[in-house]
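[[Sequence with tokens]]
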Amino acid sequence: MKYKVVSLFSGAMGLDIGLHQTDRFELLAAIEKVPAFCETARLNIAQGNISPDAVVFESDICSLDPHDVLKRLKLKPGEVDVIVGGPPCQSFSTAGRRGTVQDPRGTLLWQFLRYVQVMQPKFFVMENVRGLVSAALKHRPIAERKLKPLELEEEPGSVLRLFAKDLAALSGASYQMEAFEVNSVNYGAPQIRERVLFIGNRYGAKVNFPDPTHGPAHAVSPLDGDDLFSSKKLLPWATLRDALLDLNDPDPQVVDFSDRKKSFLKKVPPGTNWRSLSEADQKESMGKAWFAKGGRSGWWRRLTYDLPSPTLMTLPNHASTSLCHPEETRALSVREYARIQEFPDCWQFSGKLAEQYTQIGNAVPTRLGFVVGELVADELDKLSERKWKSYPNSSDGFKITYVQSHIRTRSWFKDGRVEVWGDGGDSSYSLPKTKKKSKNIG
């Protein structure tokens, strides 16, 4: 049995690919407003790379009535099994200037909620950046926070508290939602990428995200109890070498570094960054950033085959977040990007080169889509066996569970010397210190 899926904010369809790879889901519709992204979906649907009968709605979700989508699909409320999607997350990211819901993009969370209310799916899966967990409805600059106590709407987590409250108040169906902060590298993806997955259902089912299956050298499995580790060894993290080993990319398509940037990057060996440059080059190339106290590890960064990739950005050629190839002085190519996100090699990307990078860089790692897909399919199977009878009401509020999501940054500089991966230094990522834990929000 395959379950019916409607995808919102589909982008390059990383989450949809993961669900498709479980062979348990049928994609009915993909809703996306960017023309190039829609063309990517249409191209791959036509080539049979995903559900061949899926319908692409090229529209701004704010103006697309979910009733019209159901009508086009010849479905009634409650007949969609799963809604999935990742509302654009820039306004919640801690990497830039946070606008939260004062930024119009923030309201797209509530557009997702509108589709849940109308379609009444059995389950929904919503993906976002971890910054959403601490996002506030109203942002007060840090410099002004000591002037007076924060108001309720300014407190960290107020966005999610309101979202959970509005979800609980939906008419027609009562949803239980749980959130899981996870890292794709812990499940076999060759990329360190933190994400928050929100899983909701209208049957009162309590779901648990799987424990990590992969870890750094000598890591072992986490437990939910008092002990941090069991005796079960984890598989080693996948590395950039694993991702790119057999890639056939003779003419790489690259949004590359400028000649000036290359003049500095060519002096940087694999596995290190700006710290490998002379002090004169550091100051000349970094300007005021050289005097900053933190946030500089991405400057003039050249990757190493021996570690997982850092989180992919929408473009790889920025000086402060550079993703330079380990051997060649160039940025990672589109196909290398796609391999790191684990898109199938047959998957085609439409649009200008920068648009292709954006699609891939913003995508959910397909590995996470597969893991959450198997989890949701298993829960749906259990409910089917129960004849769709709801579980007894045992809700203890909205929780977020941290599943060893934070990967401690490797050492770049130690004891007065530059740490280069592979030179015999202890540059590996440390074992996790925090076990799986949950906390209530609101």
Summary: The CA atoms of residues 31 and 57 lie 5 Å apart.
